């Protein structure tokens, strides 16, 4: 059965990817028609790519898997060229862009605000925690309004405190706030700006010797690389950092275990998308060790990992099965999730439910897929609005419908901007 073709990141070809695809296909002794059959695609898709046409990352993943090579083999060493429109200078992000990447003069940031009174670091951290809770509750409009001023306030605090414990605290809070900004910007696909925020978050954490906070920011960086299709880099970054911060299990804190476990999950996700299923399974197995040691889900809204524990590991293992085009396995594993277990953060749980909807759509369970999407729209409308996979899943539902759209389906079509 073919993959849904509307989900994910559009990768621009420009001819180079088509040439690599043609070369690998021929080295495997495959015709275009046979490769398309093995990948679950139409022959026209293979022909279009080899002529220089564009395709989704998921399409390249299916082709690479059919040829038994890593997905990154189709891209050059600098990674796939992407549609830059998604990361354009959107006016609704202008205030946040000005706060994260202000112009710099010889003497420092342009337009640096003068602080009339000493910053209150306790109040600043409390404000940061409140905004972080808003993010995990999918209140995206509030994030866009509150984050710019919060970032500027952390800049002012760092500039005010030149030495001592106050400066250490100010740098720590700024690192946490920049991580939060990076997560939000990744969700709305402002990837370059998210990279800037997370790069600076790592820098601040390293400056004060906070390896846990630095690892947390690197978890966010790996997520951006995944979203951009930079799979080799994502796996290497997450794996190497996991090796560097691996805790001693006998005396590790729950937060240290969570950071280590999430790095392993990021590396596993990259390996799964890069047609390295054995490595993906081994990394999940290691993450399960961390999850078992944690015992129950542990949450820190200001850290890049949000929530980690046994349930989170199971959800990500299910996601890997979705990447491998095993919808039946996805549904079976989802059905085995224990009742009454505390949920992961809403974004991770919602992502899992979207995988379930996608699995139903692939198996032509249109009513079940619709039901999950309706539930997600009710629970997390702002989150769902930014998920391309939701629109792609619903398009697959519409392709297989045998009767007039229901009221829920008509409303979903309007919400997801999908033509009926």
UniProtKB/TrEMBL annotation:
Tree of life domain: Bacteria
HTH cro/C1-type domain location: 21-74
CDD domains listed in its UniProt record: HTH_XRE
Molecular functions (GO terms): DNA binding
Gene3D superfamilies listed in its UniProt record: lambda repressor-like DNA-binding domains (1.10.260.40)
Pfam families: HTH_3 (PF01381)
Protein name: Transcriptional regulator with XRE-family HTH domain
Organism: Nocardiopsis mwathae
